[in-house]
Amino acid sequence: MKSSVKKLVGGVVSLIVIALAAIFGYDYILDNNGDGYPQLPLEEYYESAEGLIGEELREFLTELVSTNVIPVTYGDARQALAEADADPNNPGKVLTIYSRESVDAEWNDGNNWTREHVWPNSRLGVDRVENHQANIASDLHNLRAIVQSVNSSRGNKIFSDETGPDTYYPGDADKGDVARILFYMVIRYPSLELVDEVLPKDSEDNYTPEGAKMAVLTCLLRWHREDPPDDFERQRNEVIYRWQNNRNPFIDHPEFVEMIFGN
Fold first, then answer.
1. Interatomic CA distance for residues 245 and 21, integer angstroms
2. Percent helix, strand, coil in the chain (nearest 5)?
3. What residues pair up with 168 in beta bridges, in sequence order?
């Protein structure tokens, strides 16, 4: 009886949320429990950030992007990325990272494209993610469609201006995207760290909390300035907002990068 009442009340609350969202012109999404989360216009989403800088801004954004998040499993990320990484010039295809190849969007067991962890799974401080899991390693903001051969060549190398044994250059068209993804990750998950040192590719710290680091920070800051957000990145942010109910603040407000990480 109590369970039925609880479900009834939950359903009524969801309907109220949906109705209010419709009245005020907001979009909304439902989490796995059927609870509604209205999606705010950008000016309201970041309204409380006004006047904040440095650590105060960082703490505010961490709370913002970590509140009412709807976890997406690594398996479901395949469907989400087919939409988020859609090639704007080629319907039915996705635009892959690093090589910028446009390939069929329909998932084909990873043969046409697979899922790239921009912040590598081995450097997230957790075990290798599986399709049924929803955790730090399935966060959609950190995943991009990628050609398998390119994914293999990148491996878990840190990012720098040149590709070498331990470093990887993502290309002029994607370097700013990479920087903003890593800035999001270190804000969303305070256990992660961005450093300036070149980290070895094959480290004993892989898949451990001690190895939850990425680099090179000075390169990322420069790449963010040299390759600002474009329409593809902004559209991707909107799609992920609908799926996951949080945004990458550094796409919406590029100035936040200098206000937090500058100097």
1. 15
2. 45, 10, 45
3. 159
CB 136 within 8 A of CB 189: yes
Question: Over the chain, what is the mean pLDDT?
Answer: 88
In sequence order, the 6+-apart residues with CB closer than 8 A to the CB of 255 are none
Q: Measured between alpha carbons, how far is residue 213 from residues 85, 115, 116, 123 in Å?
A: 26, 20, 17, 6
Residue 151's alpha-carbon distances to 26, 94, 168, 186, in angstroms, are: 38, 15, 11, 22
Does residue 23 have a pLDDT over 60? Answer: no
Q: Is pLDDT of 233 > 70? A: yes
d(CA 73, CA 107): 16
Tell me the per-residue pLDDT of 60-75, one tens digit each, with 9 for 90 and over: 999 999 999 999 999 9
Q: Is 65 exposed, middle or buried (0-12, 13-18, 19+ CB in 10 A)?
A: buried
Q: Encoding tokens for residue 184?
A: 């999001």
Q: What is the rounded CA–CA span in Å between residue 95 and residue 260?
A: 30
Is the peptide bond preceding residue 216 cis, with omega within 30 degrees of 0? yes
pTM of the model: 0.87
* Burial grade of 151 (CB within 10 A; 0-12, 13-18, 19 or more): buried
The β-bridge partners of 93 are 104
CA distance 159 to 178: 9
